[in-house]
Protein 1
Amino acid sequence: DIDECSGVNICDENAQCINEPGGYNCVCHPGFEGNGYQCERAGSSTSSVIVPTPPSTYYEVDTPREPEHREAPQEDDRCEYCSEFADCINGRCECKTGYAGDGFVCENPCDADHVWNGETCVRQGSTEEYEIAPFCTVQGCTCPTGYALIEYAFDQICRLLEAQPEDPDLPSCDVENNCSPSANCEWDEHQYRYQCVCNPGYDGNGYTCVEKEVSCLDEEDICDQHATCNYIVSLKKSICVCNKGYEGDGRTCHLAPECAEDDDCGMNSLCSDGLCVCQDGFERDISDFCVRTGSCGGAYCAENAICMLERRQNIQYCHCPNGFVGDGIHSCKSIPPPCNIRNNCGLHASCEPDYNNPSAYECKCNAGYFGDGFLCTPERNCRNIPSLCDPNAKCVSTTSGYQCICNQDYIGNGSVCSTAPRLDSGFLLISQGVANVKVPFNGARGLPVTMAQMAIGVDKDCATGRIFWSDISAKQIFSCKYDGTDRKPFITKDIVSPEGVAVDWISRRLYWTDSAKDTIEVASLDDPDLRTIIVSKYLVNPRGIAVDPHQSKLYWSDWNRESPKIEWSNLDGTEREVLVSGPTVELPNSIQVAPGTGELCYADAGTKKIECVDTYSKRIRTVASNLTYPFGLAITDDHFYWTDWTTKKVESINTYGERQKGIPSPVFGSHKMYGMTAVTDKCPLFHSPCVINNGDCPEKRICLTNPRAPSGRGCKCADESNCNDVIMDY
């Protein structure tokens, strides 16, 4: 053994160095007291330095030792003798986290899987993150050991679990009640022993159970009656959000103050106790503006208008008398005598009964001319100039006049026609969150067409062989060919939470719902910058959407918990009506127009049915019932297909009412299947007044089909354009 005392040591000058096996120790001389490293004369009270406990020659640990409590710092020069696993704090040697000792000697008293926390040995994993992202592959998502996979409506996370007891000598839970208070002791046939199992509504290993975070998508009644369930991208989950005019946490909502200061109230009004009131000398008119007292209902009537009183509601209003037309406030113009009394029609025009009022007459341009009936000019059409049509097109008389229409098996605008491409068919396209998947009708294994962040709605353009899908995480709408090539973004701005998408392959338009903006919007397939909002009022949670180009109708579902409904309108948003409402529907998701019958069909996760409604008689027929959780829907001539969140399969039924064998989740097994569309070999093509040159609408206006308009279409101002935001019917 080497004599450590023969070399440099740290014993006090009033101490003796004593060699010991493997080290040395310091002992104060007689008449001195201390730990050998610092010795003072016995009985001395002049020093304020507290003597530390001397280190052991070598530190064998059976039970963890803690450094003794000291009330005063050591001398600064003693810090040079601190252990390499210690820090000098206020002149005192203190062991680092994970080590035990007196600061001069610091060791880890725990095994490799544990660390000293100052009181006992604990697992190193106890400091891991509570929630982490899962590892996802084409087979699904998994979590590391010690974590449980938690699924939400549009997201998945891994949540940390405390380790299970691994001691085989621990008594079984049927002998000793060692389960979590939120668990039961149940027999496990595979382990052939009793196991602790968390109760419904909890996640964990049975010994530790954590209450699940309930999504408002899964629980219908957790939101306040004045709140809606909205998906929040930043939180990656759906939460209850109070409606406009209310405030709270979503589960409890109360009326919000109308104002906080005068600037919140507008002109001629001020804020009083949270309410906007008119200033003295002003009153509210029928438009809710504060106008000077004494005007007609708060407004000033236009020239030629008179102030009338609506006695039932005791409201004054401006009215244009007989012989004048207008709103009474902005204008009251004299109505010219009809042309059947005074022939004031222009050249190449004639006086004919009004289309909307047969008892009235109006001037109309003769065939081959166009104008307002007072000024008519020769029409430049294919009847007068046949060369306007492509050789593979014909000149056809339509509600919009004479138009060039491409022949069968050709596509184009009539002026230019090309051979229609031969496209792949006979499969389903399904949005599965992280990918869009192609599944053959025969049930063969599906293949991913293109990857995504969180794809929800999907539809096809059968004329060009492209698919369009919404992505609520990317906040965009994308498109690609049927085989996944030529992928490109379609709508990239002013879009928040796009869900349903629907393609009008005839008029070349794309419609979509935005559940965050509460809007129904449309854009041109040829120019996505040419877009507009067609519905923005009285929507709560718009979801599914479908278009019927043949009938010029648009349908959408509204997942309003208080009043679920399916609505329809013309393709320009006019003549909006409720088609089906609660309690007939409860949770309408995807909707589709049935080919052949023209019925509007829908998947209802509340009634757990697939049903169709005749749009004329409003009669409803049930296609399939006793389902579990239908979401996406697709229809062919002989089958109905739907995605089911519970069975995680593509279910189907034929037109004879016979249920077919379900197709398992095609590729990404753990991911929910959302929207779907069927790609068949049928793509009926017919004329639309909007397909050629945007329907000849003025610049910055988008042509939208309107069968009520004389020309069969209207021109609506595109978003962010400087034009009157009204529909112009021609």
Protein 2
Amino acid sequence: MAFAPRNRSARNDYDSPWKEALEQYFEPALALLMPELHAIIDWSHPPQFLDKEFQAVSHSLRRGRRQADKLAKVRTVFERPAWLLVHAEAQGGGAGPALAGLALRMQIYCYRIVDRHHIDHEPKRKPRPSGRGQARQDQCGAEGAPALWRRSSGRQAGVLHIAKGSLGFASFAILTNSCGGPPQLSHKLEFLGAAESLGSAEFQSGGMQFRCPVIHLGQWWPRWAELEARARSNPFAVIVMAQLQAHAHHRDGAGRLAAKIGLMKLLYRHEYGRDDIISLYRLVDWILILPPALEPAFEQALEAIEKEHNVAYVTSIERRAEKRGMELGKLMTLQQLMILKFGPLPSWAKARLEAADEAALSDWTDRILVAGSLEDILGAADQG
């Protein structure tokens, strides 16, 4: 399994590792973070991720690079499909404007998904004389219409009980940089209406109240020992641990290094298989970014860990190939620039290029614009 080279600046995007983690470890993510919702999904049917469908309903909403969304179609234990929206965001908790804005976005996502994809398994009916408004009210759960959503009486407010014979929809949010706050996102649209219910949206005389469960990831800090124990069989616990450490050591490179080494030791101690170790290494590496000066120390520690366990998963040819692939790309670019500027390269210049490391190639590339000769870039030619 080869590693895809990543640009370091791109790795600062919050979006990518969480999207990948949620898709790759969707079932263990729900088992850890939303156990009641996890319990009503039939995991013998793999989730179907609906990225194009989500793009269609979110195109006009302002979204940042520190947000990750996954829309999935799952099958429930009631033998009916359901749509599930998971939103992860690097945002603090509390009841400020940012949290209110997130609640509004989640409400808009919910409505657009239901409206665009007609989440209803009932046969089409002839329009009623009362017009379009009545037809929409029927679809959304007024008296006599099919029950699309039903509230669970469990602890997690907003987790939906999907009744047999219906197609359900559920959503929840993860705030990765929040240590506490309300257990639900809440947003109210003010208008006059009847006292009806729309699953997790309630019509009242003063408007429509939307509620959505929210997970404050920082609340796992006091349960760190539990996370370590859960990580024995739940790989998503490792992702949560990495994210907590990333926020805790935001500007502390040495702290990140120690945390990253600790997580890698945990993977080998819990005897994860090769594929999971490689996948989790990539995600942890993405979340816990180290300053370049500390990368060699991490690589040395990783080599020692793998030597202790008599394996070579990450430090095998795949990891070396990633690094060498980046070096070869720089070498070919620099060589082409030199040929264009100075003509065919002598053998000593080719040999020096091929023996160079990544740092030297970068330095020589910076010099080429002002250099008057190959010697100005590479140094004096070999004698003899």
Protein 3
Amino acid sequence: MTISSIQTDGNIWCQWFDKNQELKGQSFKPTVLESNDGGPVIG
């Protein structure tokens, strides 16, 4: 499963995709996540 996270105005917009790239869920997380190199967070 792939989780993509996009930072928007201090919130994290997360979307979950299955192996067929079908969207399975999405939510806002009220935390700011940053990768080690300062790039976008994709988990």
